């Protein structure tokens, strides 16, 4: 009986129609994505764009400005996102309170909203009600929303939910018994968080930060609506769109390949930190 059971188990672990179907669909999806990237490279090759020519396209002042602006604003956004996501994610993973389900829902809203809605909502917020005096106060301090500040706002609202989800999952993977032991041994709640919870959830937190940074650097719709495409507020996604709109397809594709490379590096880091996929 035992031998028969082992034989059936081995059969189930071998190739089966279900496994073949799943593997085929996985391979098809991977090939589609790689095919899109290959199409970008093939287009440049067909147009005679060499590596030296591609480098010259990237060295244009407006492209370099957009690259610098994207890096500066996305890193600023990353700091703000982490300062928000760590305590919020910990609270959602550990505390039980009235309205917890509503809080979880609100946290997830930016993930499912069309990005352009974020831009429209920011416009409405700073045009009427509470946001209007804030806008006036910023103007008094010579701070314009049509600047890096506005870009960071758009990036933050688009990226923070992803990081909160990742941080929450990371803290849920930490055994609460370890925190209880630390408290019994005399650690305060803050010391337990800093010395036990945070180190054990470190990989998930880093993965969430990388994911949110990759999301922030690719934000397009809200920035178009809320900040615009002026020469002093260009980031890589808006520059790509502007280059495409005036027929500079080669420059647009080179920028797209740079963004694809950044996204690929970020996702590789995420999966290296969390090979089982629990961090995100």
CATH class of the largest domain, named Mainly Alpha
CATH architecture of the largest domain: Orthogonal Bundle
Structural class: mainly alpha
Mean pLDDT: 86
Q: Per CATH, what is the topology of the largest domain?
A: MetI-like fold
State the separation between the terminal residues, measured CA to CA. 42 Å
Shape: globular
Could you give the order of the helices and strands? HHHHHHHHHHHHHH
Number of strands: 0
Cα gyration radius (Å): 23 Å
Number of H/I helices = 14
> Sheet bearing the most strands, described?
none
CATH superfamily of the largest domain: MetI-like
Percentage beta strand: under 5%
Structural topology:
Blueprint: H1 2-13, H2 17-46, H3 51-58, H4 61-94, H5 100-112, H6 115-127, H7 131-140, H8 148-172, H9 176-184, H10 189-200, H11 202-217, H12 221-226, H13 236-245, H14 249-273
Helix pairs in contact: 2-14, 4-8, 4-11, 5-8, 6-7, 8-11, 9-10, 11-14, 13-14
Molecular structure report:
With 280 residues, the protein is mainly α. The protein has two domains: 1-46; 50-273, MetI-like (MetI-like fold). The chain contains 14 helices and no strands. Helix 8 (148-172) packs antiparallel against helix 11 (202-217) and helix 13 (236-245) runs antiparallel to helix 14. The longest helix is centred in the N-terminal third of the chain and has 34 residues, at 61-94. The two termini are 42 Å apart.
Could you name the key traits of this structure?
0% strand; MetI-like fold; 280 residues; mainly alpha; 14 helices; 2 domains
Question: Short description, anyone?
Answer:
This protein has helices at residues 2-13, 17-46, 51-58, 61-94, 100-112, 115-127, 131-140, 148-172, 176-184, 189-200, 202-217, 221-226, 236-245, 249-273.
